């Protein structure tokens, strides 16, 4: 199933502690962008790391996209089990729940306009744009998270950017800003 990167005995407590220290804050921020409160985000991160410990022989060296994929599947399973509307924070109100030490992508001028435009897009469009723009993943890494090929992710990203640009152009002229999600790390 997963990529084997070494025997489990080389992936002991020290390895896990390092992984946890390096990626915990990123996984919590991933959750904050999708859930209504910080406690739920921290709980999600804990569940992600439980899975990482149990499946440590499958965790690739570049672990963050793999951890985001686990978080995405845990959220999907939770929402399916509730069989209702997910208790997520609307993307336009996510600024209220953001922690003070958030990344620079969240603090860019025009974020409110981008969030409002994102809110009218479909969930898949929002997810690919968030993974590339906010989580700063490459297209290949985002493809791993959402479970598709790189080519499929690139096409989804292209279409999502087009729809985001169209949604941004429909905003009133005084609040219009250029989308901050217009380039990937590779393109910068």
Structure in words:
This protein is mainly alpha-helical. It has two domains: about 1-90, Rna Polymerase Sigma Factor, Chain: A; about 90-180, Winged helix-like DNA-binding domain superfamily/Winged helix DNA-binding domain (Arc Repressor Mutant, subunit A), CATH 1.10.10. Helix content is about 55%, strand content about 0%. It is built from eight helices and no strands. Helix 2 crosses helix 3 (about 65-80), helix 5 crosses helix 8 and helix 6 crosses helix 8. The two termini are about 35 Å apart.
SSE topology:
Blueprint: H1 13-32, H2 38-54, H3 64-82, H4 94-97, H5 111-119, H6 123-133, H7 139-146, H8 150-169
Helix pairs in contact: 1-2, 1-3, 2-3, 3-7, 5-8, 6-7, 6-8, 7-8
Summarize the structure.
The protein is mainly alpha-helical. It is 57% helix and 0% strand.
Descriptive tags:
mainly alpha, 8 helices, 57% helix, globular, disordered C terminus, 188 residues, Arc Repressor Mutant, subunit A, single chain
In the CATH classification, which architecture of the largest domain applies?
Answer: Orthogonal Bundle
Our count of domains comes out at 2
- Output the radius of gyration: 17 Å
| Mean pLDDT over the residues | 77
End-to-end C-alpha gap:
33 Å
Give me the secondary-structure category: mainly alpha
């Amino acid at each position: 199933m997963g990529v084997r990167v070494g025997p489990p005995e080389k992936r002991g407590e020290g390895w896990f502690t390092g992984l946890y220290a390096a990626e915990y804050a990123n996984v919590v921020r991933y959750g904050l962008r999708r859930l209504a409160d910080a406690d739920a985000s921290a709980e999600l991160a804990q569940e992600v790391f439980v899975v990482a410990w149990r499946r440590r022989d499958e965790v690739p060296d570049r672990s963050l996209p793999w951890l985001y994929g686990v978080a995405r599947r845990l959220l999907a399973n939770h929402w399916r089990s509730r069989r209702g509307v997910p208790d997520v924070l609307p993307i336009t109100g996510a600024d209220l729940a953001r922690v003070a030490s958030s990344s620079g992508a969240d603090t860019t001028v025009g974020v409110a306009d981008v969030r409002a435009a994102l809110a009218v897009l479909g969930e898949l469009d929002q997810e690919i744009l968030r993974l590339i723009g906010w989580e700063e993943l490459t297209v290949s890494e985002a493809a791993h998270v959402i479970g598709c090929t790189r080519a499929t992710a690139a096409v989804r990203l292209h279409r999502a950017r087009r729809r985001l640009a169209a949604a941004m152009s429909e905003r009133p002229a005084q609040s219009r800003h250029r989308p901050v999600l217009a380039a990937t790390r590779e393109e910068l």
